[in-house]
Each structure stands twice: as C-alpha cells, then as structure tokens.
Amino acid sequence: MIDYIQQGIDKKLISFNEDRSRITYLHQGKERNYNNPEEKVQCLTFLKLILEYGYPVNHIKQFVPVTMGSEVKEADIIVYSDDICFKPYILIECKRQEVSEEEFLQAIEQAYSYAFALPGEIKYVWVTSELRSEYFEVDKTQNTRAQMPDIPQYGVDQIASYKYVYEASEMPKEEGKQRFFDLAVIEQAELTRRFKQAHEALWAGGELNPSDAFDELDKLIFCKIWDERKARRMGEPYDFQIITVSKNEEGDAQLRREKENDALYKRILALYEEGRKQDAEVFRDDIKLSPNKVRTVVGYLEGINLGDTDLDSKGRAFETFMGSFFRGSFGQFFTPREIVKFIVDVLPIQHDSKVLDTSCGSGGFLLYALNKVREQAIELYPNYKKDAKQGIRCFNYWHDFASKNLYGIEISKQISRAAKMNMIIHDDGHTNVITSDGLVSDETIIEENKNLGFKYGTFDFIITNPPFGSKVKQTEKAYLKTYNLGKKEEDWLAVKAKPDQTRDGQNTEVLFIEQDYKFLREGGILAIVLPDGILTNSSMQYVRNKIEDWFRIIAIVSMPQTAFTANGAGVKSSVLFLKKWEKSHTKELENKKKELEEKIKKDNSYLIKMRDWDKELKSLQKQKQHEIAGHYKNASAKVDVKKTPEYISWNSEISAQYANRINELKDQLMDEYQKGKQNELSDYPIFMAIADDIGYDATGKKITNNDLDLIGEELKKFIAKV
Question: Global pTM?
Fold first, then answer.
C-alpha cells in the first residue's frame, strides 16, 4: 500500500501544520483547509500526478481561475505540456469520496465545460472522487469527448484500451511507452466506502430498492473475486475493468459507450457463470443489472485487489458495510467482533474440530474459527510462502477444516447469502453455510439442503448468538411440541399429575439452547450469548434446571449493559460456556432429582398434609354454608348460600389462610430440595467473571480498556482443565 502523503512530505511537495488541519502545497506556496473532504482527494490526485504518472511539479497548477461568461470559477488541477505553463494539457476535477452518482455525473459536465472555457488545447479530462475515476480525451475543434481507460503518463502519447494487468510491476519499463497498473491493496476504511458508494449508486436513482441493490452488488463482488483468481500470464489484462473502444473503431460517442458496456457486461456474465459452475449454492439467480449499472459498480472496484488485501481489513470492510445495511433494512443485530474474538479465542478449536453456528447471521463466529485454524496452520508451516511442500500442507490444513468441518445455519436467505460472500472474501469456508430454520430437525435440514453434515450429536463446538426475544408460537411452528422446553414444566409438588402440555409459545433463545444440545456430541462445548433473564428470572428456573441436567456449566461471563447498544440492541446479556454431559450422567442426574423430590415429599408427609388440609377446608366450608343457610330458613325465595356476601367474604379469608399454609410448606420443601441437591449431587467449580469494559463504548467507539483480554487468558486455562 503506497503512502502518497508521506512520500509527498519527504519530497517537499506538501507540508502540514501540527494538527494536520491545514496543508501547504509548497511549489505554489498555497495553504488550504485539509479538513475539507475534497481537499484530501485533491492532495492525493496532485501527488499521484507526480509520483505515479511522472509529471514534473512545475508543469502542474492548482486552483486555476476559469472564466465562464460573467463568472470566474476555479479548476482544481491543470497539467501543462510546457515548463512555463502556457499550454494546458490535462484538466482534473476532484470531488469528495462520498459524492453521489448524480453529483459525479454533474462534475463530469462541469469539468468538460471548464476544458472548453480554458484557452489552448486541453487534451484530457480526469474526474475523480478517489474511489472512482472517469477519463476523457477531448477534441475542442470537434466539440467531442471520448472515454479513456486512464490519462497518459508523462512522455506517453498512445495508451491501450485498458489500465490494469496481471503483474504490471514485473513488466519491463520502456521510456515513452505506457506503464500499466497492478490492482491496489487498500485500507479497510476506503474499501468500506467503495462498497457503500457502489451500493448507493445502484439504488439511489430509484431503479432498485436497497435490498435488491445489495444482492446485485454481492454478485459483482463475487465476479471480482473470481476474476482475480483466474490464471493469467504477466501483462494480461483483467476482465473486471472498463475496456474502452477507440474513436477509430466507432466515431459516435453514444454507440461507443454502448459497445463498451455490452462488452463489459459479457465479460462479467462469463465470470459469474464460471463462478456459479464451481459454487452453485451461493447465487442461484441471474445478474439483474443493466450494462450501464454494471459499469458503474465496476468503476468503483476495478482497481482494487481484494485477494491480497489482508483478511482482517477486507472482512471488517464487508461486515461494516453489511452490518450498517442490514441494521437499517432488516433490524438485524450482529455480534460485536470483540465478543466473537473472545469466545473463539478461549475455545480449543483445532483443524479436525467440527464447528457449528445455528444462527450464524453474517458469519462472524465462523470466520474467527476459520482464522484461528489458519493461524495454527501458519505456526505449523512458517515457510509456507517459500517452501512449496509447506505451502500445500498449510493450505490443506485450514482448507480441509473450512470445507469439511465448518457449518452455519441462517434463516434469512439474503443474510445467508451475505454470510457466504463474507466467507468467500476471507478466501473460503462458505461451503456448509445454508439457508434454513435453525430450529427444525436435523433430518429436515439434511433433506432440504442435501448436506449430510448437519446431524445431531456430531459437533465438537457450537458458537452462537441466537436471536433474543421473539416468540415461536405453537400455531405458527408445529415443531414446538418436539422440544422439551416447548412444553410446560413439570411441577413436582403438584398433587395430581398432569399430562404433557405444549406451551402456547416459547422464546427462540430458549429453544436454541435445546437445539444446540441436540447438535453437540457428548463432551462437546456450547458457547452461547443469552439474555440475563434466563439466569435470573424466577419464571426461567425450569430452563436453568434443564441446563443443569444437560450440561456441565464451565463458565458464565457477564457482559456490560452497553455490549450490544451500538449494534441496536440493549438487552443485558452473558456468555455461557457449557459442556454436554454424557447421556448416562444426565439420566443419573434426573433420577437423583426425582428420588430427592419423592424423599422430601415422603419425609414431610406432603401428600397426606395436602389431602388432610383439603378435607379440613371442605369440611369448614360445609359447616359455614349450613350455618348461613339457617339464617335464610324462613326466606320467601330460595337462596344460593355460596353467592351471599357473607359466605364470599368468609371463604376468601379462609381459603387465603390455607393457601398461605400450603405455600409455606412448598417453600420449606423447595428449600430442602435446594439443600439436598447440594449434598446429593456432585459439585464442581464454575468460572465466573464480570466484564465492565469490552473494548468499545455504547456508541461503538473503540476504547483502550478491554476486560475480555484478561478474562480470556484465565478462562482458556480453566477450560483446558475441564
């Protein structure tokens, strides 16, 4: 990644004041406001002209007055063909990076008008927002302009119809001949902006809604990745770029652009079909954009190198763009990276571990698991870049994990597709990401997706943040009755046994606990983000009982209230680490609990007392009814004693007395039960921690303190001993 700013400072082309709010162009002695977004683009463009295109600094003028009728305007940059700056050669118009599509097109017209208003023979026009550039050859005598792939470098007269070729930097350089360009590795922030600007250019005109525009942009990113992966000889041009048609081939400007767009469209479709043959599950529908819209997106992405951009940067860029889009359009809340990293880091995931996220969203947990194994591969084969054998072994180590052991389920078709794209951008690991309801049976998932990997009892690790708060209703989802936690809990202090009753509804996060239990092998570990209500609310005791029966609780790490605020959710939550008991142990626990319950009831003569108290109450009620009936013996009309104010008031009081007596007994027995459990059931240590700060504040802004770093170090040691 070229640091043009630093090179500009070193070569005494520019300088800054202390806080970099002001920039001085030293060759002209002009000071400008560097906080202005357009100024930053102008600075980079000025430096590129010198450092990349080779133009002498004395051939360049900035902020040049241009007379437009009665007005005097200012051209951003003019490059002259002579030392005295008399013959204008190239005019450059700079716009801020976030310029809209409409504004960019207006800027082209503006630059064109400047070129014709200037004296002399301007030959080229360059309009740039840094994220996107358009180049034109201008003929003032004919009042025409022809699109170019680039402006010529200094001393070059003829340029090819394309700009980007494979291994351009390795090609021999010849004076007077065009120098081609490699695809550029860029930083995360710029990549995010390119994704965002390309997306906005697709939907802002109203032809597409934001959701459809997102899908179409995904397809073109897919094509871009495939183009970079294609085998090429040195100097061979990339297909994913605008290739112009010369004026000699087509004189009419409109027809020329149509030919360019059609040719580009065909190349893109060929890339798309090539990619789909290899990976049909990512995109099943065709590209729906017009050739002109395809050209717009290509204009934003053609010059960047997605393949060589470091994984973290391009992953963050895609996830940032994707996260903001889905939050705005679908109300989806993705797990913050700091929490994802913490969870994956502490787990002993290896290349042969089978890993699942049952509600994978954009694929954050899966990506970190993949990167964890990839780092292990690099540690094992540190010379993988130079040693061919190590390179193959390193690749197979993590790639086999990605293709065979990494699984994700996402109910939203669009988010699932985005997760696949997120994985592809990270180089791999999307093969087993499927679109499905994560709460249906494994048989249904396997049948629907023709993927045999989604089998209950086979996963070593499940890492997930299930959706909170939404309820699955019995009337909507028949599978509710297949869940133990979808049924009303058994009351061991009930006098009469009741048949199993399906709940009217159940929270999704509760059902995911049981579903994840089913997917885990015995001894497998579940790391799950849950709302604190499951841990604290008395109404959730039955859930905690099941967790206790099914899992050895390894750790509970409390997150701050603000953990999910920046992502649009404000529910207080914790991360639970749970190890699945052997089924025999779970059965043993359940039996011991039942035995304890029966013992406590027997020792306290619970059923006898309940029966006796019931008899007592009924006897007292009959006596009272008889007594009151005597008062109405001589009444002219028959009186329903039970409906008299006197009986109603008395019965309410006496029933409350017996209810209190019963509740006191039940509380006593529950206390005995809890004490008995502590004595009867084997105890074990549980790692408990509270994270007050987790690397970012409520707005999502980074902060220096992250308690999860220290907690993670200690928890990793603890898990190793479990």
Answer: 0.80
